[in-house]
Design brief:
The protein is 30% helix and 25% strand. The protein is an alpha+beta fold. β12 and β13 form a beta hairpin. It is found in: Golgi apparatus.
């Protein structure tokens, strides 16, 4: 049961029971200010007390003063939670004589009993009800309340309150109840203040005796924890946490002092249970807490059990305050502190690795609690590979201004049952993931689960022993091995649970499964590594992530899975290279060379050997060895037409490039000499079969700046021969008005695939080669300014070219007043940069169709000068772009050289449209739709994706095998420039309650392959039907009619209709269907369907809204059935009045004729109770049918009479069966001249269904006017037509 403050009640039990609902509902509705002693911060708390009967014996026994507990040898401590903090007395006596004779003595006896208790706060409540107010009409000199105050509370009048008629809802009663509740809260908090002050004084006195002999920390722990429980009960979680922090600090100080002084006797008990290592559990189990507190009271708790309990309580209070970040921050220090205390107290465990088991399970339990409270996942189970990635991406959106993005980081695997959301947690949870990984590796090493270890019988015994001692700390108190602490160990090799089973695993089960077999150990270890790396990368601690990656790479290398280790080694190599940690770079290069050689990847092995051979920190013998390996591999692939492309990096350093020919180049046979100053870091000379520099043209004309496009190059064919394919770019002059649009053809380097890049998540045979497209490394279209920045940044990374613009301000006389320089890329120039991280600039091969080259050049170690020659035959101006050095089939490319040139390019931007459909899209069912993509100047490669994101209540899927979701990626086929392709997919729009035939509009946000921006498209859905309702009345009976009207040509099958009441007493409100439940109806446009139910109005209170839910299933041909819901809200629909009309001829007339005066009788019958008794009636009729003679409106008073009759004179104006004149009723609210609230009368209409017109469909037979005596018999209708014929409606 939840702890609540206790308040006793005594006196008249019936009076108290009548007020209890109002008390329980109102006392906790408002916060009350709690003023603390000793200058503490004022708190606002909500009180939710529990009322118990006053029993003097039980209360006095439970209210034992805590000061009596002075030494640990005494009886168990008395808890504060069982003490009643306020005593109340309830009476409804209003007669002074009755008070003097009986009530006064009863109150005096009760007060004497209260004063014998330690908590003496009391309150007397006098309840005034309407019954006891009418006993005496004379006003007494003094009331009973005055007598009570005079007799018992002369100096404390606030302890006597009066509660006026709590059953009424007027303002006086509400104010009285509010005053009484406020007094109750104030006295309850005042009682707590006094009691807690005494309790804290006793607690401090006990703490001061901590150095005395016989003092026991366990007994003091229970004493101070009582204070924490009370503070937690009152909602003061921060102060409750302070109590546990003080206990934590006190215990830690005792442990540290025991290492230097004599160990207290009570501290020796914490060295027990060396044969078990209870796991941490943060579940809020009250039974578990009581069991652990019992072991503390008996001084039989172990150190791990005590630490687990104390941290669990601290974690619970932090969670209640939503301080999950602090919980994550405390976790790692808690684990280290506990391990340190185990070492100080020399706690020995029966098995090696017990502490590692405890640490591993504790880390997972803490992480599960933190991430579980950060976001509770709902819905279907998501993919474990994408959960953490998507959550980290959502965190990056909130921290994009603080965290620097790392494009090369890997996508970590997600933990099967952890959903991380809060970005602040990652700063602390990253260390927990890493710590859990380290401990799991230690356990795997002990149990023989590493790749090169062979399991033996000793390892199996070790696993069983570790699992036997690992139990939940709540079951450890009873030495139980059931539940989470079961000692059963799975011995299945290679078994793996599915995602649902993994989501239900506890940390203990996860550890036992991990230690049961090598495959499971590897699975869990890899998951922890990926989680640790992903979290480190998310918080920007890339070096820590690389450290974990190196450990994972070593594990893969030990398992001989070299292709998986390569990715992590490459990432570490990039980080170490940027940080210029030369020794670490060489160590990683040696491991990479070993991996590439093991998998037979000659291309990467050649590049790695070249890097190692150029490392001057290695001795010459090893450099020469790898140089020979490089040349040997090049000789082996010399006959192939495949070239190994690599950046020059440290192999060849280009110091200067000089063009000997100055001025413009002539159009015919102009020789160009390019001198390249080159430095080689190779240990021995090498023969280069071709050294060439790419020359590209540019236009040097004035005008608006344009953007160039560079032709791409095809894969290399043969030795030094290349085939080039230039893509033509067509210009659309009318796309953006005059002059067209200018588009920069620049691509993001992060999206380009560079030769030599390897992802840690890549899989497959290590002998697979890169495709020819990857080896060719198609050049991205970069502007000249971008290449300038790349070239300058390659020389000095801190230099960034600024985009400056002159701006002048003039005075009124047009003279210059001020001039300034404006920088447009200031956000790039002044952004924060990591001083150690260098941008990863990829070197891609440009167009080498026109080059300056030299063949068969020997490049010696050190400085070299190479002269290249070229002949230009085409007119124009050119620029030098890139240098290529070929050694057999090994081609090394220099970075792009700086340039500042522009080109005019007109690019037709692709567009996307919604296809015109043969039939309209229908909401509520799944349908196929297609989009038309017009590529323009772009092209679509096979395998590219069209990303589509839908608006709310719109679901998408690609094909029949996938699930519906809000975002999809549609694969596209190859489509050339200026062509059109179609993307088809399935859509389904949610169908809500449709009240009209308006179409439903949804949006599609589409991202095309050639653009990073989304295009918004509108699509319209036609609802299959619309719904409405109508309330029908037959006297006092009510019928609800729900109507469906088809809106589409598509035929739907309607079935399983139902109507339910959304009300707290729904089972008491009968709904009688008039249509069979098994009825199935086909509905399409122009067709209507109606369903009707009768409502049992006798059980309904129509003052409050009555909500009804109509549901049915509709199904289209070859489609699954869908559910449709429609909601109806009824209020004030019971029949209050019934109107019945009849028309009769005047006396002396046998029947009604045209032009003859007739009498109209209107009977108004009252059924229900109505506050307003005055009704205004109004008789309305078509002037072509009836003529109303006299007053057609009037006021009727319904007081005391159930039926009122009104007689009017009417004259029929047309022969035939005429409908009776309509009678309309309204509430008549007369003017109130005295109060002045309304100076004119008002009319208030009735709600639908409150007035039932029984003669609404009745008709009367009116004969034509009498012509002559000869024709009278023919018009009278026979001798039997002496009375008018009235036809009644079936309702």
């Amino acid at each position: 049961m939840e702890n609540k403050p206790l308040i006793t009640y005594s006196g008249d039990l019936a009076v108290f029971q009548s007020v209890v609902p109002s008390l329980q509902k109102g006392i906790g509705s408002e916060a009350v200010e709690w003023k603390r002693a000793y200058g503490r911060t004022t708190k606002h708390v909500h009180l939710h007390p529990r009322f118990i009967p006053f029993n003097q014996e039980e209360i006095c026994v439970s209210n034992v003063d805590s000061s009596s507990i002075s030494v640990p040898e005494q009886a168990p401590l008395t808890t504060l939670l069982d003490q009643a903090m306020l005593h109340t007395y309830w009476t409804d006596c209003v007669d002074v004589e009755v008070y003097r004779s009986t009530t006064k003595d009863a109150i005096q006896s009760w007060l004497n009993s209260v004063k014998s208790c330690n908590v003496r706060e009391w309150l007397i409540i006098l309840v005034e009800t309407p019954d006891n107010k009418k006993t005496n009409k004379l006003l007494p000199r003094s009331s009973v309340l005055d007598k009570i105050k005079n007799d018992f509370a002369q100096k404390q009048t606030e302890r006597c309150v009066c509660l006026s008629d709590p059953q009424k809802l007027d303002s006086k009663s509400a104010e009285s109840l509010h005053s009484m509740l406020h007094r109750l809260r104030q006295l309850l908090l005042a009682s707590y203040s006094k009691t807690l002050t005494k309790f804290e004084e006793n607690m401090r006195a006990q703490r001061e005796r901590r150095n005395e002999a016989g003092w026991n920390f366990c007994h003091y722990f229970l004493l101070q924890e009582e204070l924490a429980f009370v503070l937690e009960m009152l909602g003061v979680y921060d102060e409750a946490l302070v109590q546990y922090d003080e206990l934590d600090a006190l215990f830690t100080q005792f442990v540290l002092n025991s290492h230097l002084t004599d160990t207290p006797q009570w501290l020796l008990s914490f060295q027990r249970y060396g044969d078990r290592w209870p796991a941490l559990s943060l579940a809020t189990n009250l039974a578990c807490l009581s069991e652990i507190r019992e072991t503390v009271r008996n001084s039989t708790v172990s150190l791990l059990n005590f630490r687990n309990y104390l941290f669990a309580r601290q974690a619970l209070l932090l969670i209640k305050q939503n301080r999950l970040n602090e919980l994550a921050q405390r976790s790692l220090s808690f684990l280290h502190n506990c391990i340190n205390e185990l070492a100080i107290l020399d706690v020995a465990f029966s098995e090696e690795g017990a502490v590692s088991c405890w640490v591993f399970v504790s880390c997972l339990e803490i992480l599960s609690t933190i991430c579980g409270h950060g976001q509770t996942p709902t819905g279907a189970v998501t993919s474990p590979q994408n959960n953490l990635k998507s959550s980290l991406e959502s965190q990056d959106k909130g921290q994009s201004h603080n965290n620097k993005q790392h494009p090369n980081q890997a996508n970590p695997q997600h933990h099967p049952y952890i959903f991380m959301t809060a970005s602040d947690f990652s700063v602390h949870t990253a260390h927990l993931w890493d710590y859990a990984r380290e401990k799991l590796y230690e356990l795997g090493k002990l149990c023989g689960l590493l790749p090169k270890s062979q399991p033996k019988s000793d390892h199996l015994h070790k696993v069983i022993s570790l699992a036997a001692g690992l139990v939940c700390f709540d079951s450890a108190a009873h030495n139980s091995t059931n539940g989470n602490g079961t000692t059963s160990v799975s011995s299945s090799e290679g078994s793996s649970d599915n995602l649902e089973e993994a989501a239900a695993e506890t940390p203990i089960e996860k550890l036992k499964n991990a230690l049961s077999s090598k495959p499971l150990f590897q699975q869990y270890y890899l998951e922890l590594c990926e989680l640790a790396m992903g979290t480190y990368k998310h918080i920007g601690r890339l070096r820590s992530a690389r450290k974990v990656g190196l450990s994972l790479a070593s594990y893969y290398m030990e398992a001989e899975e070299f292709n998986k280790a390569v990715g992590f080694l490459v990432d570490a190599l990039k980080t170490f290279t940027n940080d210029r940690w030369t020794v670490l770079v060489i160590d990683v290069l040696l491991k990479l060379a070993e991996c590439y050689q093991a998998v037979g990847d000659n291309e990467r092995y050649i590049r790695t050997c070249a890097q190692i051979a150029c490392s001057k920190q290695l001795e010459s013998s090893r450099r020469n060895h790898f140089f020979d390996e490089m040349m040997t591999c090049l000789t082996e692939i010399e006959g192939n037409d495949r070239f190994v492309i690599s950046p020059t990096e440290e192999t060849f350093i280009i110091n200067t490039v000089k063009i000997d020919t100055l001025g413009k180049i002539h159009l015919e046979s102009c020789n160009v000499r390019v001198t390249v100053d080159l430095y080689s870091n190779l240990p021995r000379p090498v023969l280069s079969n071709c050294v060439q520099a790419a020359i590209l043209p540019y236009d040097n004309h004035t005008g608006a700046p344009s953007v160039p496009t560079f032709p791409t190059c095809a894969p290399v064919k043969g030795k030094g021969q290349q085939k080039h394919t230039n893509k033509k770019v067509q210009q659309n002059q009318g796309a953006e008005g005059k002059g067209g649009a200018r588009t920069t053809l620049a691509t993001n380097n992060e999206n380009d695939t560079a030769v030599g890049r390897h992802s840690p998540n890549s899989s497959g045979d290590g002998k697979e080669r890169l495709s020819r497209k990857e080896s060719a490394a198609l050049a991205p279209a970069l502007t000249c300014e971008d290449e300038d920045n790349l070239a300058i940044g390659d020389i000095n990374p801190s230099v960034l070219r600024l985009s400056l613009m002159q701006q002048l301000e003039t005075k009124q006389d047009k003279s210059v007043h001020m001039g300034r320089l404006m920088c447009h890329n200031i956000h790039q120039a002044l952004r924060r940069k990591d001083s150690q991280v260098k941008a990863d600039v990829q070197v891609l091969k440009t167009d080498f169709s026109q080059v300056a080259k030299a063949n068969d050049i020997i490049i010696n170690p050190g400085a070299n000068v190479i002269v290249l020659e070229a002949k230009i035959t085409s007119p124009g101006t050119y620029r030098l772009c890139q240098v290529s050095i070929g050694v057999k089939n090994f081609e090394l490319l220099s970075p792009r050289m700086g340039c500042k040139y522009h080109f005019d390019v007109e690019k037709v931007i692709g567009k996307i449209d919604v296809d015109s459909l043969e039939s309209s899209l229908i909401a509520g069912i799944e349908q196929m739709m297609s989009l038309s993509l017009h590529t323009g100047s772009n092209s679509i490669e096979k395998g590219m994706m069209l990303y589509i994101r839908a608006s709310v209540d719109l679901q998408l899927r690609v094909d029949g095998s996938s699930e519906m979701c809000s975002e999809i990626a549609v694969p596209l086929e190859y489509t050339g420039a200026f062509a059109t392709t179609k993307a088809r997919f399935w859509v389904k729009a949610a169908l809500g309650p449709q009240k009209d035939n308006s179409m439903i509009e949804h949006k599609l946000m589409v991202r095309c392959p050639w653009s990073i921006e989304e295009t918004k498209l509108s699509i319209l859905f036609v609802p299959p039907f619309m719904s409405s309702y109508k309330l029908n009345s037959v006297g006092q009976r009510k019928f609800i009619q729900v109507m469906l009207q088809g809106l589409t040509e598509t035929q739907f099958l309607i079935a399983d209709h139902s109507l339910s009441v959304q009300h707290k007493n729904a089972e008491n409100i009968p709904l009688v269907p008039l249509n069979p439940r098994s009825q199935q109806i086909k509905l399409r446009t122009g067709q209507n369907v109606s369903y009707m139910w009768e409502i049992g109005v006798t059980e309904v209170e129509d003052d409050h809204p009555l909500r009804l839910e109509f549901s049915m299933k509709f199904q289209c041909e070859n489609k699954s059935a869908e559910l449709y819901k429609y909601y109806v809200c009824l209020q004030r629909f019971k029949t209050l009045y019934e109107v019945k009309s009849r028309v009769e001829p005047h006396k002396g007339s046998e029947f009604c004729r045209v032009g003859n005066m007739c009498s109209m009788f209107v009977d108004i019958t009252k059924f229900g109770s109505d506050v307003h008794l005055s009704l205004m009636y109004e008789v309305r009729a078509d002037q072509h049918l009836w003529a109303i003679c006299g007053r057609s409106t009037g006021v009727v008073l319904m007081e005391g009479n159930a039926t009122q009759q009104i007689v009017l004179d009417v004259m029929p104006m047309s022969p035939g069966f005429l409908p009776l004149p309509a009678v309309h009723l309204s509430r008549y609210i007369p003017a109130d001249q005295k109060s002045g609230s309304s100076s004119v009368p008002k009319l208030e209409p009735f709600s639908v269904g409150q007035v039932f017109n029984r003669s609404k469909a009745s008709q009367i037979h009116v004969l034509p006017p009498q012509q002559s005596s000869g024709s009278t018999s023919g018009l009278s209708g026979g001798s039997n037509s002496s009375l008018p014929v009235v036809t009644d409606s079936p309702f």
